[in-house]
Input
Amino acid sequence: MEAGTEFVPSDFTRLSRSPRPVFKRKVYDDIFQGRLSLALAQVEGVKVYRFSVLPKGESAMPSTHALAPGSDIAFDVLEGDARLGLAKVLSGCTFQQSLRARFEFSFPLAKTACCLGLGERYSSLNLRGARHTLCSTDNPNHDESSDSLYKAIPFSIFLDDGLASACFLDSSAPQIYDLDSELDGQVRIELLSARGFSFYYFDRAPLAQIVAAYTALTGRSELPPRWALGHQQSRWSYPDAETVRELAREFRRRRIPCDTLVLDIDYMDDYRVFTSDKGRFPDFKGLIEELARDNFRLVTIVDPGVKLDKDYKIYQEGLKLELFCRDAKGEVFVDRVWPGRSVFPDFQMEATRKWWAEKLQFYYDNGVSGIWNDMNEPAFFDTRFIPVSSFDELPETGEQPFLQRDDADGEPTTVGHLEVRNLYGSMMCEATYNAALAARPGERPFVLTRSAFAGIQRHAAVWLGDNKSWWEHLRKSLPMLLNVGLSGVPFAGVDIGGFGETCSPEMLLRWYEVGIFFPFFRNHCWLKGRAQEPFAYGAAVEEKARRLIELRYSLLPYISGLFHEHRQTGAPLMRPLLYHYPQDAMALNCHDQFMFGADILVAPVMERAQTHRYVYLPEAGSQWTALAGDKTYEGGRSHYLDMPLGTCPAFVREGAILPLADAMQSTAEYEQAAITFKVYGQQGSAVFYEDDGKSFDYKEGGFAQWQLAYSEGFLSRLMGGHYKTSRRYFLQKPDGSKIPVQL
Ligand code: MIG
Output
């Protein structure tokens, strides 16, 4: 499971490393002979150019499933030479096919441009000055040498002088982005593939508009079920029913809000997916019912590896239906993962996805609320991948670790695994999402995934895998999540407290201080370290953690509004400061703070034994108010602030009105909770959104969207929808007084 170690089959070593030291970048001639075309569409006011490449011998453009079905964006084919056309719109861009399975793009990068996006990168916010490889990899060691991680999202953004442009290279094959690592002012993109692909260029526009256009193309997240926005508690593993019951009791007894308990791999019978262990979970369904009575949801992990066991029904079925990946000799591909020797569903085929979705009914029949897809890069214990960045080109199909069959366009064609590896996780999630829809028609699914390709936001939330209980990983979670968000994925988080190693009480609190602003809000860790639940470190820590988690619940009306905003505009919830303040030089270089929506700025402490920090608040002439405590600060400068343990490191923009819910133990109490509209500054305005938090009725008017305004008095105007609640609403005026209001 270590990344970057050597590889099988032995043939591959031939391709792995150059025998001589290399002093120069290899330069290739162009050998391209296929078909090119350039087309243009206006998407969200952005000019989007599509440069399509069909190499000689390829008959059709393969589908990567990245584009949202039914997004019906019409591209007009542009006359003339496509290459020259591309060089004109993306000025100075060259394109060539260098080898049978290698394509290259290169274009100049403005001196001051900041590079963003590319999904999950172990990097600070600006990705410039490095090479970034996109090839889904289970790398449990996230450090400075990390390159590929679990996700591969080929959407790169270049921000310069207040405007952004972007590229989306829609291919599921490995890609390497060299973002001026040679300091020669060039972006070089290598695509290691022999198949056709499309390269989209988004012409200069404000960053928010670029993200809007990209998500118009690849889709946006539907609204998540409300419970999934609450606090989730996980561990590898809570091993038996009694532990789970006790965990639930502890949360309620201590009045620490929590919605969801998560079962990791040990709930299964010897790691066989679609089973539960009869000994440790004698009444799986009964346990879930019991938890539900106490307003807990249960999420279970599902891995793709199917145990190779001739007496196991799932294995027998998949074998008979020929749904598992096979090697070049036609043998079913076998590798070890948690169940021991295992086989791997070929999710590239629709038949496999349908079958998997049917099998997933096991969980829904038992009352499970959401599915957590792990190990879906896919990860193997034995097969080691040489970093693809050391390949000159993609190995021939027959030389790849195994083959897959692609039936996106009808008759299945055989394709080497590496051509579609980056899609494996996303295809598993598509199956899972559809399974949830089938099992619970009309209910919003919750799917969580580790591996993902462009467009994943349509089917799943993501978390960033095996971080560690390190201060550096707490710090890195900000820029990493920010780039994930800009890559179209709003519902994202990292393991609070850190997954590996051992968390300290101080670290847990600091992580919760910022974690309450992660869209996906889950505490998770392995079994080896110390327990990491919010009550694991004594009364003083518990009290502070409780207050922070309570604050998360009070923000739920605001958070629901942000998801609604994402659906309308593609905006992520966590945004770099430059998203809202692109002309502010301080904002441009800031990766230890972020905006949570347009109204809240978060500036957490992420160092051990640190009780103060500089907080930069943008916009001279405006005023910011601490979300907790109500102290005010001037905008347009930095402040050196006292931030003791347990602090809420958030500041609210002047002119905002935040909808804040009364405290609750779980989202089951949400509909009864009163909401207070709190005005920040002497006057304010806001859009307030609400719906039932569980169905898709919002697509047919089952929501209410209000325009709120306060100057001397309070005004509300219904802008859309007809959803009504019986809850009470209050207004908290600038002087602190609170009065009931009607919507
Ligand atoms: O090889 O299921 O990232 O969250 O607890 C480790 C056990 C497999 C990796 C996931 C982690 C999960 C763990 N999994």
About this structure: Residues 657-741 form a domain with the Immunoglobulin-like fold (CATH 2.60.40.1180). The pocket of MIG is lined by residues 236, 264-265, 301, 374-375, 450, 465-466, 499, 524 (CB under 6 Å). The two ends are 55 Å apart (CA to CA).
